[in-house]
Amino acid sequence: xxxxxxxxxxxxxxxFMRINVVVALTISAFLGGLIxxxxxxxxxxxxNSGLGGGASIALNYAMLGAFAVAISKSGITDLLAxxxxxxLGDGSSQRQINSFxxxxxxxxxxxxxxxxxxxxxxxxxxxxxxxxxxxxxxxLKLDRRAVACVITFGLTATYMFLPIGFGGIFLNNxxxxxxxxxxxxxxxxxxxxxMALPVLGMVIGLIIAVVFSYRKPREYKADVAxxxxxxxxVVFNPxxxxxxxxxxxxxxxxxxxxxxIILGALTGFIIFTLGGVIKFDETQDMFTRGVHMMAMxxxxxxxxxGFAEVMKxxxxxxxxxxSIGGAIGDNKGLAALLMLITGLLVTMGIGSSFSTIPILATxxxxxxxxxxxxxxxxxxxxxxxxxxxxxxxxxSDSTLGPTSGLNVDGQHDHIRDSVIPTFIHYNIPLIIFGWxxxxxx
Length: 441
What we know:
Oligomer: single chain
Strand content: under 5%
Helix content: over 70%
Number of strands: 0
Number of helices: 19
Distance between the termini: 34 Å
Structural class: mainly alpha
Shape: globular
């Protein structure tokens, strides 16, 4: 009857029943709090206090959505789609189609990887790049579940292994600090080694997803795809294209300099308005459309923050982990497996490995050292346990991001087409290879 376990399972069951994720998170948070014995008033207070943690993220995504709509109106995305389609003629052979399909997936993978370090914009590239390519994907009969797996891999595996950009924050600023603060003797140079095997598991999962699971063609309705117009009727305004390029460069530069998506997206939107791409009387409609496109991801992140706060108030994580030591004696292999599964349960609800590490490290590090795990194995256990939720949680931006781009035309379900595929192909290998790393390092 651990409240965290029950709350996470309830959230997953409700989500799989196609109940809205925001509703599922809210119901599960209240259920977990009440089962833990908290008064209803305290559950409400904890949930409300946690909502503020997701508000800034929601505003970031709303501004980003408005900027994405402005970019689309400029015509630069139509131009991109036309250029891509022009390379794929109607008489293309199946071999050429397959080559183009895998080339597109590889390009999206490189962009997703680069979004964590080379140009650290995280999921900001998705609403800008993916919707214009939906028409191309429909023409190729490309299974969007494969696309979701590719993007999620680039967003997650990259920061787990490469100590650059977001990886530097995850490995050095958060994981290393919390490991050493709780008694593990680890140096920064050891962390990529500790995470190498878990990431290898994700690589294998990616290959299985692209080459086997979602290799077959999948039909989508081309007449409703918002894949941008690629017919000869589309007229491109060179001035608008130039304004779009200036706005994109300005937005990206400001985001990197000031670490603010809001400032960057707002500046880009203003440039589009002053440049004549968006008329002043259209700004209200453009912003509303942008908010609508990204509203769901923002509300899910807000609800997830409230859920996490209630779970902290229940102290269910501590009791769950402490029960491991008393239940399995001195069996290191079983201890490692149970710690990983516990990490999966915790992070599936919270949806953020960055937010989960301080919770897990406080409990896991002393427990791992008590069982005789090496510092390197301890680092692998904590890092993998935290990353499990990012790779396949309904509330993770690593799954919400791909859905926001792939579901623009309403043909990509978040749970069935993003969460379940990434859970199967990444969380299962992460547990297996994380366990191998824990018992061998």
